[in-house]
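In response to the reviewer comment on reproducibility (Comment 2.3), we provide here a single inverse folding case reported in full, input and output, so that an independent group could reproduce the run without further information from us. The structure tokens appear first.
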């Protein structure tokens, strides 16, 4: 066969990166040093490890807004994560960022969520209050640095600095004058930072910022869609919103006889497009204003660079307020989530009192654990549960299990 001088090794064919993108050839490495792969960049390996992890598979059976058995078509944590990843990759492609790093951060960002979503997190945070509380982002870090047990030479996934940094700081710095964090930084993050500094006072990469805003775009859109599917809101209710309402009017003017299901889908896809295009325009403007030329310039910037315009930020805020009032805090959702919190708290207190009721290695080597370490082990065990497993465990251990409907 004739020699082909245009051959590119598998995994390395990509568009030229922008100068302010994260360059995989300049990665700051891993906590445990590993030899390079001949076919994949460090960020590709991170993404692949995330996808093959047990925590990623569990997202399939964890609540986004509606518990999974309320309907087959509602989003779960897994489908939400995939939608976030798709939007984030669109930003990476448009801005010439590293797509693999962007995707890795998007795919891992919700690993630490408990069963029943934020309801389970609220319950565990109350239970863990004497021991530093519980935060799903900090729990994501624990999963990828300690709790996943897949590799012979290390605990966790041994992800690169850039992926860990993006996981922890995708919403902004956690320390220093530009911190966006409310309250004390979660203890698991500070403990890991002492071993492997993540520059908590600096901004994360544009790839991480892309994942963060994609999360906002995804849930602001698909929670409207799921609210319509659940009957908590109706198409005409979208007229209350400047963004979704203007799209509703445009679609009705263009397709006067469109059935409701197609109408809803047309609105949602345009909703995402409007927000994505706004972010790209606003980001390019900020990059120019702040004279961003390198990845280090991004980290040293005094503000988030990949963002909505002020006008779209206000529209997104109004959408979020609408969702809180009409969907998240609706009587039917609140009733289910209150019962879910009770279920999680019941399990926590039972496992703390009788830790050998936990399955597998979780109930082993309990001797010598002080109160705080036992509580953390129980919260690790509980937070990893899927919705269905948490319900089945409650039924095993208690005579009366709340009906989550």
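Designed residues, in position order:
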């Amino acid at each position: 066969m004739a020699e082909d001088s245009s051959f590119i090794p598998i995994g390395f064919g990509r568009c030229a990166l922008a100068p302010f993108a994260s360059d995989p050839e300049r990665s700051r490495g891993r906590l445990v040093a590993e030899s390079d792969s001949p076919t994949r960049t460090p960020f590709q390996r991170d993404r692949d490890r995330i996808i093959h992890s047990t925590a990623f598979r569990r997202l399939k059976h964890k609540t986004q807004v509606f518990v999974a058995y309320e309907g087959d078509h509602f989003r779960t944590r897994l489908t939400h994560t995939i939608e976030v990843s798709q939007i984030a990759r669109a930003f990476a492609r448009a801005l010439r960022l590293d797509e693999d790093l962007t995707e890795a951060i998007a795919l891992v960002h919700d690993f630490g969520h408990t069963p029943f979503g934020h309801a389970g997190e609220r319950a565990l945070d109350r239970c863990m209050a004497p021991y530093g509380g519980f935060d799903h982002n900090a729990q994501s870090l624990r999963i990828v640095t300690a709790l996943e047990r897949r590799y012979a030479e290390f605990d966790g996934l041994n992800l690169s600095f850039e992926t860990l940094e993006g996981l922890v700081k995708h919403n902004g710095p956690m320390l220093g004058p530009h911190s966006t964090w409310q309250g004390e930084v979660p203890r698991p993050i500070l403990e890991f930072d002492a071993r492997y500094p993540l520059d908590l006072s600096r901004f994360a990469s544009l790839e991480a910022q892309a994942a963060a805003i994609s999360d906002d775009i995804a849930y602001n859109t698909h929670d409207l869609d799921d609210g319509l599917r659940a009957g908590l809101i109706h198409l005409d209710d979208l007229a209350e919103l400047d963004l979704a309402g203007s799209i509703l009017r445009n679609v009705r003017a263009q397709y006067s006889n469109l059935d409701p299901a197609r109408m809803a889908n047309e609105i949602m896809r345009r909703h995402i497009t409007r927000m994505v295009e706004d972010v790209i325009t606003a980001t390019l403007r900020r990059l120019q204003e702040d004279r961003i030329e390198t990845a280090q310039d991004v980290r040293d910037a005094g503000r988030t660079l990949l963002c909505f315009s002020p006008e779209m930020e206000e529209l997104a805020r109004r959408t979020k307020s609408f969702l809180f009032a009409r969907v998240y805090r609706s009587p039917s959702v609140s009733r289910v989530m209150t019962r879910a919190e009770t279920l999680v708290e019941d399990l926590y207190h039972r496992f703390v009192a009788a830790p050998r009721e936990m399955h597998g290695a979780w109930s082993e080597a309990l001797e010598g654990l002080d109160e705080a370490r036992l509580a953390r082990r129980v919260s690790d065990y509980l937070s990893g549960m899927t919705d269905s497993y948490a319900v089945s465990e409650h039924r095993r251990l208690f005579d009366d299990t709340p009906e989550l409907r």
